[in-house]
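Listing 4. Sequential folding, example run.
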Amino acid sequence: MLDKNDPSTYSHQYATVNGIRMHYVDENAKSSKPLLLIHGWPDLWIGWREQIKFLADLGYRVIVPSLRGFGETDGPTDPAEYGYKTISDDLVGLLDYLQIPTVTVIGHDWGGAVTWRFGQFYPERVKALASFCTPYAPATKVEMTLEQIVQVLPNFRYQLYLCTPEAEKDMNDNIPKFFRRVFRPIADGMSLIDSKTGRLAEGREDVPRSDVVPEKVMDYYIKAYTKQGARGGLNWYKQTHNNFVQCKDLDPIIKKPSMMVTAELDKALPPAMSAKMSEFIPNLEMHNVKDSGHWILWEKPEECNALLKSFLGRVDPVSSNKL
C-alpha cells in the first residue's frame, strides 16, 4: 500500500539508459496515460510525494526518475557528462526502455528547465509540458559565463558558490544539517546561503526538522546524499558552457500545450522571470500560487494538484475518472 511519506512503499525500478544506471519510481504502470515528473536540486524523486499518489489515483501512470547525478542514479564526476541534451537523452532512453512513445512532462526547479528543453529536443515525444517555478527562456545565441548571467540575474548569485569545491565539501560535511535547513517552508525565513559567511551549512546553526517534511522523507534524503555525495547534483551548476553548445541551435518556439506555475515568494525564481514566456509558447496558461516559496510542491500541494488536475484534464484526459 502506497504511503506518500514512506519512500520504501513506492515501486522502485532501474534501467540502463544512455550509458548510466537510472533509478525511477513507476506507479500505476498499467495506465496508458504516462506522466514524467522531473525533480531539481538538491531534490530527489520524493520531492513529488504530494503529487505521485494523487496523479496515479486520477488514472495516470506516474514515472519519476532520479536524474543523472542524484540518488540511486549514476552520477559521473566529470561535469562534461551533463547538460540539457545529455539529460534529455537519458529521459528519452528511459521512455524507449519503457516503450512509451509520447508523454506529458512536468518539472520543478532544474527539472522545469529540463522539461522545457526536452520539449525542444524531442517535441515528437511530448504531449504537453508543465513547470513549477522555473520559467522558459530561449537558448542564447551568444555564449555568456555564469558570472555574466549573474550580473543580469542577481538572484542567481548563489550559483557561483555552488560551482566551487568549497560548496561540495560544505554539503558533504554537513548533510543532515544542510537538509534540515534547506527543506523548510518560506515562512521560516531561512536563506540558502549565510549572508556573512557565504556557506550553506558549515558554521551555521543546526535546526530541528520542519514538521512539513516527514521523518522518513528527511532520513531518505540524508541517506541518499550520504551515499552519492554532493558532486553529481552540484555538477548541474557547472553547465553554462555545455548548455550553450548543446542548445544554441534549438527552435525557440514551443508549440505544445504548456502550463507555467510560479510561486509568489520564490526568491531564486521570482514570478517576474516568466513574464515574456507567452512570446515563445503560444499555447501557454500561467498561474501564480500565493504565499508559496520555492518548495511549492509540498508547501501548497492542494493548489498544485488542483492546477495539475485541471491542466491534464484538458491536454490528456483519462476517461475513467472525474476530471
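-- end of first protein; second protein begins --
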Amino acid sequence: MPGAHDPTGTAMPQQPLHFSMFPAAYPYSSFHTVTNPYECTVNSCRILTTSGQNVDDVFKYIDSDERLSIAELMLKWAHVAPTAPDTLWCFPFKDKDPFILDTLPNVLVIGNQPKFETSLVKGSNGKTRVVLVPSFAESGTLVLLNVKTLECTSLTFEIKNEE
C-alpha cells in the first residue's frame, strides 16, 4: 500500500505501487500491491486500511493529539477521508464519493501514526476494531490481530547496536 512518501501520485485513492519495484516478491502469488485506501476480507472479517494521510490531514486543522478519537469519529461520520477534496487531494468523482462507508468494516487500520493505539467501537451493525499502527521502520512495532475475536496487540522488536 502506498503512503505519503512513496513514488506514486498523492491524490486519493492512491494507486498501487508498480510491481516492478518488487522484483524478488512479485512472482509470489501471495504478493499484492494495493490501493490506498484498501479493503479486503479475511475469513469473513472485513478490513479497511489506509496509510494515514486521512488522519494526518485532519490534524493540520485541530489542536489535539487524540488520533484514536478522530479515527473513531470517522466511523461515526461514515467517511474515511472527511477533509477530501478540500485539503486532502483526491481524484474528482462525479456521482459517488468513494470514501463514504455504506457499511462499517469489522476492522479499520490506519498506518503511519505516532504510536500504537486501539479501541473497539460499537456501531449499528456490530463492532469495529480501530487500530492505529506506527511506522515499523521508526518504531519496530507490528500489530497482531485475531480476525475471529477482533483482539489486537502490538509486538515491538528492539535492535541493539553493538559497537
